[in-house]
């Protein structure tokens, strides 16, 4: 009797047609991958922090061919670590600093939260990390930020909040309206960016040792929650904020180097922009995933977590510090199961059988739920 194939219950792998076909024919190898994507999501990242360790420590180990990384918000924080001289150590420092951030009051000010975020980044980068990221010959970083226009550059809540509402209402009509409110500013390493956006107003700015930390901090500076970052070195004058506003999980409509896009994600779905969370008809479908491989925790794995969900910013409000630390540490520990499933699928070649192909008009999250049922 033939042995029954192992069922991987902690990790799902979804891919567009071309990516799925190639993996089934050739397996998955790091040299196939030209681009790595990291989404916005704050604490949600903790569900895949162990997956990041496997990717940088095993899958991409000894990488010599240049690879583009594209991130917004926490995706920029993570991708920054990949481009340091000691990426595993950097990831561990980021996870520790992020999990253990605490505040003196229950309602810290935006300035306090921003200062804490900056301190986490400085601890990760140390003395030479910023220069390593800016000049890395293999890991070509692209950190997405936005520069607010008019009142969206203000730090006054009475001015900023109505402007954000106006931006959200306009976005409800069309994502194209965001260009009237925001400029997407991409901070990139190398002489020229290797990722190009086809929509919205986009400005490209070279990374330097002086602007890596401000650029990454700005990429995660949520309006009203954190303060904006004023004019990182070399960038156009303005107040810089969270890149997730325009590119929350990315719509995948960007040009990238030839090859596959690997997308380690905390959800089996992608929401284009921050204001699109409730607009499911805008969520990315299989047609945009043709050359994309998305690796995510399975819905079944999430259901076994404390509170049956992955961490989010509401945990700071709904849980005591002791409860939050216990919960977040439990999630990062459980994340080893997700990482181990991916590692085994990749190493044994089982990924060719486990990969879920997403049709051009299919929703990846619905397929993931069906496969986990």
Notes on the protein architecture:
This protein has 373 residues and is of the alpha/beta class. 38% of the residues lie in helices and 17% in strands. The protein has 13 helices and 13 strands. It has helices at residues 17-26, 49-59, 74-82, 87-99, 110-125, 129-135, 157-173, 212-219, 299-303, 315-318, 321-348, 351-354, 364-372, and strands at residues 11-15, 33-38, 67-72, 139-148, 182-188, 196-197, 202-206, 229-230, 239-242, 254-255, 260-264, 292-297, 356-357. The strands form two sheets. Strands 1, 2, 3, 4, 5, 7, 8, 9, 11, 12 and 13 form an eleven-stranded mixed beta sheet that branches. Strands 6-10 form a two-stranded antiparallel ribbon. The longest helix has 28 residues, at 321-348. The radius of gyration is 20 Å and the shape is globular. The two termini are 26 Å apart. 49% of the residues are buried. The mean pLDDT is 95.
